[in-house]
Design a protein that fits this description.
heterodimer, A: 381 residues, alpha/beta, Peroxisomal Thiolase, Chain A, domain 1, 2 domains, eleven-stranded mixed β-sheet, three-stranded mixed β-sheet, 9 helices, B: 200 residues, seven-stranded mixed β-sheet, 7 helices, globular
């Protein structure tokens, strides 16, 4: 089944999208809501008991099963995305040994933290839960690498397929909005009291959102019932600079983009759309503008989806790749919500109207605590 | 292209073994990792700001990389792929306690991600290469070596520092290995597991 694409790299196909987020639970309905300018974020007083007012994104109760002792909110989110992604495949490929599920999360069931050791708290529980619930052929792999977990999950999946370790890999990203994370970002002065405004002059910080999302990568395009796209290349790189502050020169992000493009021999001018990290903090967005300038991407059509979805942490890479692929397929990019006036030191071509991409190459980037950065390239259609 | 083990290091039960040989034994009153820090003559004040998990990763990486001829690699050719079972659970509880006490500690919150440990290693050794952090029930040699092969296959690294790091108070279970792709015979997961278990 192995075929080569035009880049001398073996083909990896990507499809079977699933999503669960404040704006809805199907890729098309959420995409259309974003195009209509709807946001999933709402101002909440004392969210999750944290003494502040902030915009957060919460999945509506009617979209998600109530939690029980044996299946938490996060586990229900993962299950739902797993089932929906599988429903878009001809068979459930993951009950066999040649299929693997990768779970990407920063904090898992962190809402279960208490003075007593709650058995649901350790991340390894997610792996056992998914394997038992769906009779999976392999123990799911868990990646917990801050805010690049989702993008790293996709890159890891493609590498495992190219190294012939597995034929099919499902990448599931999920994180919830909890007292733990809200209070932490508040303590770091990273939360804004209003709606986040990525790349805008008046941006003051992030909004947190909860989401789960799934994508399937495979060496066999016939497993997909519907459409699929092409994974081309990806890379991660550390800033080697600071554990909680982005590099001033955007070193790791720049390097991850350069590696991703050079592996595929694609030039930055060929990128039709860039889905950036765009958290809305002063330092992150500024760092990105510098890295994009160094990568010759200042003129590339770019947006951040954080104004619609909030920062969904471990899910962010998966859900933002999903909507990037969806927008490319529909030939209408999503305007960057919350952006009005330029507010970073290097120029950026921020999407303000639902225009068409300039080519079928789609680049996604992410950055996170620990100085980590990642980039991933797709060809759509 | 075959996997080759260059160096490995245990930091466990008050002892450090490098390539299977006893390198350090904890005798003094200092906490174990501080005691190693002094023994190897480090001067790196940031070490004292780290949580226990990052200190363990930092110390283990220091002793492993020191013996792995890292100068032969460019600054982005060494990947750092770590794993453990508890993620950052100990720091999660410390941060949670600060939150309960009414003053949420930003410096403790930063350590509530396991990959901060990888970040500390990259900062120290100026490594701009690939990173990943896997959560596994127990030391998983198959997964870690599979990652090495997948990175080498993708030309994403020429060497990988892999590790298993668990730290709970003064209980440490650290195992570090420097893997290259220059082997003649394939280094196997069974061999790595045996080394981790001290059967090598």
């Amino acid at each position: 089944m192995e075929t080569e694409n035009g880049f001398g790299l073996s083909e990896v196909f990507i499809g079977a999208k699933s999503v669960l987020c404040p704006l809805g639970d199907t890729p098309s309905s959420v995409y259309e809501a974003m195009l209509n300018g709807e946001t999933g974020l709402q101002s909440v007083e004392n969210p999750r008991g944290v003494k502040t007012t902030s915009h957060i994104g919460i999945i509506p109760d009617n979209l998600i099963a109530e939690e029980h002792m044996d299946s938490t909110r996060l586990e229900n989110m993962l299950s739902l995305c797993y089932e929906r992604s599988v429903s878009k495949l001809r068979f459930d490929e993951f009950q066999d040994k040649n299929g693997l599920v990768i779970i990407c999360t920063t904090k898992g069931n962190i809402d279960k933290i208490s003075a007593d050791d709650d058995p649901r708290l350790p991340l390894t529980r997610l792996s056992k839960f998914m394997q038992q619930s769906f009779d999976l052929g392999n123990e799911p792999m868990i990646i917990s690498n801050a805010c690049i977990s989702g993008v790293l999950g996709i890159i890891t999946a493609a590498r495992l397929i190219r190294a012939k370790k597995y034929d099919h890999v499902m990448v599931l990203g999920a994180d919830i909005v909890s007292e733990f994370t809200l209070s932490g970002f508040l303590a770091l002065h990273a939360l804004t009291d209003g709606a986040c405004q990525p790349y805008d002059k008046n941006r003051k910080g992030i909004n947190l959102g909860e989401a789960a999302s799934g994508l399937v990568l495979s060496n066999d395009e016939t497993i997909f019932k519907g459409t699929f796209d092409h994974y081309i290349s990806g890379a991660s790189a550390n800033d080697a600079n600071h554990i909680s502050g982005p590099s001033r020169t955007g070193e790791g992000l720049y390097r991850s983009i350069e590696k991703t493009l050079s592996k595929a021999d694609v030039k930055s001018e060929q990128i039709g759309y860039l889905s950036a990290h765009g958290t809305g903090t002063v330092f992150n967005d500024e760092m990105e503008s510098i890295a994009f300038k160094r990568s010759n991407l200042s003129g590339t059509l770019v947006n951040s989806l954080k104004g619609y979805l909030g920062h969904t942490l471990g899910a962010a890479g998966v859900i933002e790749v999903l909507f990037g692929l969806e927008a490319m397929k529909r030939n209408q990019l999503i305007p960057s919500f919350g952006y009005q006036e330029p507010g970073v030191s290097e120029p950026m071509n921020i999407i303000q109207d639902a225009i068409s991409p300039t080519s079928n190459y789609f680049l996604k980037t992410a950055s996170g605590f620990g100085g980590c950065n990642a980039a991933v390239l797709f060809k759509v259609g | 292209m075959s996997l080759e083990l260059k160096t490995y290091c245990h930091v466990k039960n008050g002892e450090v073994h490098i390539n299977g040989e006893l390198f350090f034994q904890h005798m003094d009153e200092e906490p174990f990792l501080r005691s190693i820090y002094k023994h190897i003559g480090l001067t790196y004040p940031k070490f004292f700001k780290m949580d226990e998990l990052s200190r363990l990763g930092f110390i283990g990486a220091e002793m492993t990389l020191m013996r792995s001829e890292v100068e032969n690699y460019k600054d982005d050719e060494i990947a750092v792929i770590f794993s453990n079972c508890s993620s950052s659970l100990m720091s999660d509880y410390l941060y949670f306690e600060s939150l309960q006490s009414g003053i949420a500690s930003p410096s403790q919150f930063v350590y509530t991600l396991p990959n901060i440990e990888v970040g500390e290693v990259c900062i120290r050794h100026k490594l701009y290469g690939e990173n990943n952090f896997f959560i596994t029930e127990r030391f998983n040699a198959e997964l870690l070596l599979e990652q090495c092969s997948a990175l080498f296959e993708d030309n994403a690294a020429k060497a990988v520092l892999i590790a298993w790091t668990e730290a709970q108070g003064e209980n440490h279970d650290g195992f570090f290995a420097f893997i290259t792709n220059s082997g003649v015979e394939e280094f196997t997961a069974q061999e790595l597991t045996d080394l981790y278990l001290g059967r090598g």
